Amino acid sequence: MSGDPERRRVLVSHADQPLGRRIVKRLFWDERVAQVLAIGDGPPPRSFDHFLAAPDRRLVYARVDLSRHRPVSNLFHSQVRAHRIDSVIHVPSHGPGESPNRPLVAGVATRTAEARLVLQQCLQDRGIHDLIVLGSAFVYRLTPGNANRMTEDSELNLDPDAAADLRSWVDCDMIFHGEVHNDALRVVLLRVPTVVCGGGAVFFHPSLSAVERNDWPARDLRPLGFDPLCALISDKDVALAARLALHSRHSGVYNVSGNETLPLSELSRWTGQRSLPVPGPLLRVASRVAGLAGGQWLRVSGDGPQMRYGFTLDTRRAAEQLGFRPGHRIGLARAGDGRVQIETPEI
Amino acid sequence: MDITPRLDPEDPLADLPVLGRDPFEAQEEFDPFAILTATAGTLRVAASGRDAPSVEGLEPDPVVPLSLHRRRRPAPLLADLDPVPPRGIVERWLGADERQRLASLQHLVDSELPYDRMGLSPDVLRRTFPIFYALYRLYFRVRSQGHEHLPTRGPAIVAANHGGLLPFDGAMLILDVLLHSDPPRLLRSIVDRWAGELPWVNIFYARVGQVIGTRENFDDLLSDDQMVLVFPEGVAGIRKTIAQRNRLQTFHMGFVEEALRHQTPIVPAAVIGSDDQTPILYDLPNLARRLGLPALPITPTFPWFGPLGLLPYPVRYRLVYGEPLAFHERFAPKDADDPRLVRYLARQVRHRIQRLVDRETSR
Fold first, then answer.
1. ipTM value of the model?
2. B39, B88, B164, B211: least buried by Cβ within 10 Å?
């Protein structure tokens, strides 16, 4: 049961992607976790080799396509029951290979289809009591006069003309949000802003996370004359928040964020990603050209509000109820080979 | 000059004997508290139809501390700062005192990153300061008085009259406070929402500490012990025609609510000269609305000289800070929910600023 002193048995989805990997590793060293069932699309990450070889088999890895009903159903009826999983941490797909133009599954985005299936199985499986979900904070509605600080109750972006990738995040958010008051299943939705990893990888940001690093000559375009402020959180703090939510008794929606904020231009420079500011009208033309080119040599982050107006997150609820405090700083440091790159040392 | 407050004839409070038919006539030095003390209870009765609650003994509602701001280092006194060497040729023109004041603003950024949570960058402030300092000293030749009324620590709201199409009055107030406070304080100005839509302007405003005017942003600044600059007239202030110069327009009231909620003093400030920097002969509000602009003025130079016609004339600015209005000493935070009281207090601030303006213009 939630808040039960006994050790937890946890399923982590998309464990082959960076945040999933980070969460799995964090849980592996958590004494209050007895078993981790890691699920991924591809083969197990190399970094799991050490953990998978542990004699007590605390970590088990399985390849499952979460966007298809049959494999997900099989997973929950076989491995989940066999390992007596009682909690699920759903990490929506976010890896560097994620393309906003992924094919639809049954008419909805892959991320949305996965969210539906995972929630459906969690609701049906009587052994699962806790569902922790990572969501994006870019679901908030941003306007020219939006407050700098978004609370959990701030309005969501329900614009039907929003980018497909953003719409899928909003859909996921609403799917899980609808179950936060469920008595049988404790649902915790963690909304995270731009996630930064040591070395410079960026996730969850609608522009930067879509750009492969060093894939010259791909160019990312953004609106000229705007430099929105980006709230940042390190991947380690995301894993920390997920772990705190797992062991908490509370359910609901929580903003989690680090202490740092950076303008988009600065963040692009820090992460070594090239983005070219372009006047608004040209951006719309470029968007069509990019569509014709298939995103091979030109990517357009769009002219959406998230590329113009910045925000930070009010994390008071997470601090009070989950006990979340960011434990890592985000800054530039010189690596061993002399390169300057983002590091996330402990505070 | 007639400075009688214009009360709404529909207002049920208009018949009350105490509320300023002209409070200035009766008193040589207008003290809003003298009236407030007498009328606070009456106001509440009129507003709610219930017995007036006693002001005494009211426990202020706790303002939830904002944990999203890590506590910043306290602002350093000038005497505690080491001399700051000039950075580049331009900074050599600045005095040692000005350089020290600029360097002291570094404490506003509390993390490892060069920006605060609102986008303020002390580095950008330092780079742009010489330009505005030249305007302050040489172009507008600012004279100011009443700096002793500016709180040296803690949150405060500076409420000033607004004028001129381009907000040089705000820039001059910010510079004046920075140059005359110890420890040096940066006024964080509340700007209109449409400023967030303007390319480049939105970036510049954020980097030099201006904040879009939302309740949450206001809350954050006051919770962070900052001094906030508001122009309660809003856009109505900048589109005053030459016939209305130095006459304050209707005030927005949000700043009074925030002052009560955060138990913060309000420092009235008068800016003389801003209305003359771009004398508006006629405003075209309907056309401005269609174009999405706050104002579309006809001035002696605009639109005849294109955008250059909007540049301010080299008028002398005079800034006067009045005694702080400590409404929070008389009213509890929950009184911020009483719209009639808030409206009344906003009027008192307006009268106080109008009086400062009149005193200075009559000299």
1. 0.84
2. B88
Residue of chain A minimizing CA distance to B117: A261
Q: CB neighbours of B92 closer than 8 A, spacing ≥ 6?
A: B86
Tally of domains within chain B: 1
DSSP conformation class of A108: B
CA distance B58 to A104: 60
Say if residue B24's pLDDT is above 50: no
What type of residue is A124?
Q
C-alpha–C-alpha distance, residues A295 and A99, integer Å: 10
Interface with chain B: mutation pick from A224, A227, A267, highest number of B CBs within 10 Å: A227
For position A344, what pLDDT does the model report?
84
User: In this structure, is residue B70 part of a structural domain?
Assistant: no
**Residue A253 DSSP code:** E
Domains and CATH numbers, chain A: 8-343 (3.40.50.720)
A257 CA: distance to closest CA in chain B (Å): 9
Residue B68 resides in a domain: no
Q: Flag whether B64 is in a domain.
A: no
pTM for this prediction: 0.82
- Nearest residue to B156 via CA among B336, B326, B338, B353: B326
For residue A188, the surrounding DSSP H or E stretch is strand A186-192
CB-based contact B203 A313, cutoff 8 Å = no
Q: Closest CB to A148: pick one of B117, B193, B199.
A: B117
Q: Residue B137 — pLDDT band, cuts 50, 70, 90?
A: very high
CATH number at residue B169: 3.40.1130
Residue B336 structural domain: 75-361
Judged by average pLDDT, the poorest of A166-170, A282-286, B121-125 is: A282-286
Structural domain includes residue B170: yes
DSSP conformation class of B13: G
User: What are the pLDDT digits (tens) for B324-340?
Assistant: 999 999 999 999 999 99
Bridge partners, A133 (sequence order):
A90, A189
How buried is A14 (Cβ within 10 angstroms: 0-12 exposed, 13-18 middle, 19+ buried)?
buried
Chain A residues with CB inside 8 Å of B118's CB? 148, 229
Chain mean pLDDT for chain B: 81
- To the nearest whole Å, the CA of B259 is away from the closest chain A CA by 19
* Contact list, B194 vs chain A (CB under 8 Å): 144-145
The answer to whether the beta carbons of residues B30 and B355 sit under 8 Å apart is yes
Nearest CA in chain A to B197: A144
Matching residue, tokens 């007498």 = B38
